[in-house]
Amino acid sequence: MDPTKIMAELLKSGAIMLAETCPVEGCHLPLFKLRTGEVICPIHGKVHIVKTEEEAREVYTRTYLSHILEKLEIYALKTIENLLNSPDIEPTEYIKWLEVLERIQRIKSQLTSKP
Length: 115
Description:
Largest sheet: 4 strands, antiparallel
Order of helices and strands: HEEEEHH
Helix content: 55-70%
Number of helices: 3
Number of strands: 4
Shape: elongated
Structural class: alpha+beta
Number of domains: 2
């Protein structure tokens, strides 16, 4: 889709065009702040604006941790599925993996609630 049309749609929907441009090499399109506060590039989607090395580390750490949690969640779900197909599994084994899933969800929730 044409970036100009996407930008027009963003403006129509109430997004604010920012002075900053997309950090993706070669893009240079203006960034837009949505009503939700999320900052996006019309082509590349969500981006993070950082002003210091510390902010960059925080974004990288949060993004990397989210990626790891997604993988761990998939692993836990597959493990539970395998347990369901195995005879003679103790209920405590199910409970252990359900607790793992609960903790993953709690951490993911905390990550998304931080500014």
